Amino acid sequence: MAVLHVPALLRPLCGGSDRLEVAARTLGELLRAADARCPGIYDRVAVDGALRPELAVAIDGEMQSFALHEPLGPGADVTIVPAIGGG
Amino acid sequence: MAATEHPSYKVIGTRPVRPDGVEKVTGKAQYGADVRLPGMIHGKILRSPHAHARVLSIDTSEAEKVPGVMAVVTRADFPVAEDVVQDLGEGAVSVKELSDNVLASDKVLYRGHAVAAVAATSPHIAEEAAGRIRVEYAVLPPVLAVRDAMREDAPLLDEQRVTKEMGGQGSGRPSNVASHLRFAGGDVEAAFAAADEVVEREFTTKMVHQGYIEPQNSTASWNADGTLTIWTSTQGAFVVRSQVAEVLRLPVSQIRVIPMEIGGGFGGKIPIYLDPVAALLSKKSGRPVKIVMSRTDVFEATGPTSGSYIRMKMARKDDRITAVQATLAYEAGAYPGSAVGAGAMTMLSPYNIENFVIDAYDVCVNKPKTSAYRAPGAPAAAFATEQMIDELAKNAKLDPLELRLKNSAHEGTRMVNGAVFPRIGAEETVRAALTSPHYRSPIEGPNRGRGVASGFWFNAGLQSSVVASANSDGTVNLIEGSTDIGGTRASLAMQLAETLGLPFEAVRPTVADTDSISYNDVTGGSRVTFASGLAVYEAGQELRKEMVRRAAKLLGVDEAELVYEDGGVQSTRDATKRLRFSEIAAKAGQTGGPIAGKGAVQARGVGAAFGTHVVDVEVDPETGKVQILRYTAVQDVGTAVHPSYVEGQIQGGVAQGVGWALNEEYYYDESGRLLNASYLDYRMPTALDLPLIETVLVEVPNPGHPYGVRGVGEVPIVPPLAAVANAIAEATGHRFRDLPISPRRIMEETQGLA
Fold it and tell me: What is the value of ipTM here, to two decimals?
């Protein structure tokens, strides 16, 4: 099972939960599975088959603008974060 | 002094002469202002005298009559910009807003906003003609300060803008607040209720500029075949290509960007300003067109970093920081996109704090659109956090570094955004600061004080590519696409030399243009030595394998019995069978042709950076002048590839941070006119203002890089603001929570004149 840490602004979609455990082999599957339990969460995070450009995802601490087909390992730890830029 | 965990290297960790040094000290290095092309003419930009106004009409007819004028452009010459958000290199960018910032359409949103441009046979004629363009404005009231802009009755920069909240919308009412983020964990109310002490404070910082020496410049040549060549000063040639392509609606393959040597950037040379304008002037005139900004243009119209307002409440129980509640509001400038999200995500990162709620607001104001500045968003946030921790430590009679150590983040700690830290060196930097000669020395004398502060920056990975080609004399050409701001030609060449077992001098690095190397993201996010270093390592490994294959042919043995070691190929069965790299390279033509390796990565395994700083100050009670007596910066640098460059990065970051703390600010009048748009009035520290900044390099290797590399360039600007403020608090007995802590403010506060 992968773990999705739900961002604070999206927790109202999940009944206040800050953490979901879902079965998923890819990032996209994880977001779809989360959407089944928290309707609307997928569209808040992804658009046109990709992460929203202003967002990034951290998978097991690795922060990137991953494709939704990014594979998840067993027990993957996933967080959704604002994209950042450096100077 | 350095604390070291890594294995011993032959090249990494040495201090060779920089490969670009001779050209720079002899004046041969070519910067954008040096570009001279046959038939080249010069462009000037007409800028708005108003901070907020509607553009009713633009009449260019008088300008066009000036002898020597060859082209005039306004926004009407630009393609209609798509209203889409795209990742154009290092973060999401609205193409319409990018285009509007390059040349205003219906509204000007800050004084200095570009409105039109002229190209003429001399810069003076262009300037004279630009002054004859008649622009009719309907002047609107400006809003200049972040909290004013958040008021419901504030003048709106964009009547259509509503607050975004992570893919959704806030109230739905038009607002200058472009976005709201929230990070929350644990139970702050319970933690506040159970605390020994709770403090709540407000902090403000002013908009400040990166202060690079070289103004923005661009030379564009629109060629007869429809292709476009741009020579420019940039932190990312490929990002210029992408952004110009979007603004002018051209395919990227039609644009070639040649990055010139760069006279500083610090994040400010990621956005484009002049390139599309020069391109269209070139298209209209049929000549290459060069535009160089004045210093006033740079201050008024390029991207500084945000002014900010932060309110923070922090709880302590025993020696643990148990809860934080914070609100951050950052000035985005004319268009959305401040670094408030990064500020919110970094502000507690040196610590392991269980309970927190952080709200972050990105707010548009009538000032230039902000851009990245070294660890964007983090210094202002640390200014708040690190003063709060200092106050809690003093109130509880705890050593401020010991309190930090007790609460330090470590491997496995979650950031406020939920991401888990891998191996990091946060604790190590605090320990090294505690045991540093500076911290262990007494500070004596009246009006003197010592301050400490810690800081964090993520660092970035992103995309990099390189090609390494062996020459017949045994040297290697290393072609890369990352602009060299802080010594990356050296740090990449050193990593390739280490990988190949060659001396540093055998590798000759060159930064190529966008037609000559695969895509590279910007030089930013402290990423190049790390990410392009990974690409270099990959290219080096490919070269090693190819060298083994070629050596097998030359030695007449099976590849399987050969290994690459110590700059050559060696038989594992016969010690006499060995060929040096140069011997194999010299016979490439007999063994299969040119020998080259490439590396192309989307880098993973980024190592975060932490620093802890110690500063001693003396405050003149009669003038309020602050003298920095001693400064020590401790930083986990992963592996110091070229320690002199690493130390230079740290010292540069500290110098900028001290300027931000003590003097620097964008100073506006009520109409939105910047009153200090020159280095005469915008006070940056000079060598006379600073002592030698001592550095302590802690090396906790990044497990995500074969040589343990972490980015080092940004985090050193994070702690100085708070460290200096904490030192001044100890020296004067007064807390300063508004930057800059200028002599005037010190006198007002200490003499009760505020």
Answer: 0.97
pTM over cut 0.95: yes
Neighbour-count burial for B146-156, b at 16+ CB within 10 Å, e otherwise: beebbeeebeb
Alpha helices, H only, B2-112:
21-25, 61-64, 95-102
Q: Give the mean model confidence (pLDDT) for residues B178-192.
A: 97
Per the structure block, which two tokens stand in for A10?
A: 């999206």
Q: Which of residues 55-84 of B touch A (CB under 8 A)?
A: none
Confidence at residue B1, expressed as pLDDT on a 0 to 100 scale: 46
Amino acid identity for residue B680 in this structure: L
Question: Is the pLDDT reported for residue B732 higher than 60?
Answer: yes
Record: contact B524-A65, CB cut-off 8 A: no
* Nearest residue in chain B measured CA to CA from A43: B167
B-interface mutation test, from A13, A18, A63, most B Cβ less than 10 A away: A63
pLDDT digits (tens, 9 = 90+) for B423-460: 999 999 999 999 999 999 999 999 999 999 999 999 99
Give the CATH number of domain A2-82; options: 3.40.630.30, 3.10.20.30, 3.30.1330.10, 3.30.830.10. 3.10.20.30
Domain range enclosing B481: 461-602
Q: How long a stretch of residues is chain B?
A: 754
Task: Name the β-bridge partners of B134.
Answer: B59
Question: Considering only residues 174 to 193 of chain B, which have any Cβ-Cβ distance to chain A shorter than 8 Å?
Answer: 180-185
A9·B165 Cβ contact <8 A: yes
Cβ count near B27 (within 10 Å): 7
Distance set, CA A42 to CA A2, A22, A28, B166 (Å): 16, 14, 9, 11
> Looking at residues B45-71, what average pLDDT do you find?
98
Judge: B267–A55 Cβ closer than 8 Å, yes or no.
no
* pLDDT one-digit tens code per residue, B632-686: 999 999 999 999 999 999 999 999 999 999 999 999 999 999 999 999 999 999 9
Give a three-class secondary structure readout of B266-302: CCCCCCCCCHHHHHHHHHHHCCCEEEECCHHHHHHHC
% of chain B with per-residue pLDDT over 70: 99
DSSP per-residue string spanning B173-230: EE-SEEEEEEEEES-HHHHHHT-SEEEEEEEEE--B----SSPPEEEEEE-TTS-EEE
Q: CA-nearest residue of chain A to B463?
A: A64
pLDDT of residue A64: 83
3-state secondary structure of B254: helix
Shared domain check, B568 and B445: no
The answer to whether B487 and B645 have CB atoms below 8 angstroms apart is yes
pLDDT in tens, B687-703: 999 999 999 999 999 99
B563/B694 same-domain check: no
| DSSP strands (E only) in B350-405 | 355-364
Show residues of chain A in contact with B211, CB under 8 Å: none
In terms of C-beta density within 10 A (0-12 exposed, 13-18 middle, 19 or more buried), how is residue B235 classed? buried
pLDDT at A84 over 90: no
Residue B136 at interface with chain A, using a CB cutoff of 8 Å:
no
Write out the DSSP string of B487-508: SHHHHHHHHHHHHHT--GGGEE
Judge whether residue B89 has pLDDT over 80: no
* Residue B531 placed within a domain: yes
Q: How many domains does chain B have?
A: 2
